[in-house]
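Entry 14. Ran structure prediction on the chain below.
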Amino acid sequence: MTFEGALEYGKGVLKDAGVLDYQLDAWYLMEYACKICKSEYYLHAKEEMEGAAFQEYRLLLKKRGELPELDESECPGSILPGCRNLWGCRSR
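Output, structure tokens:
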């Protein structure tokens, strides 16, 4: 699957799971799984993604789809595994 196709797949999975920011979350998870930035994505969007990276991406999408949405009264957190935001003072 191409990077572009995988991103669209991820958006669909998260949208179907009811994730409010499904487009942004799909991108963040792809960026994490493939270790790419936006400029690399645009340069290589039509290229095939490595199988291991796609499998990790699918796993992250599944985990994200199972997370409950936070309301504004709760502390924001990171969707990436093993990470928290700066306010949580914990990093990978």
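The CA atoms of residues 58 and 68 lie 18 Å apart. Will compare against last week's run tomorrow.
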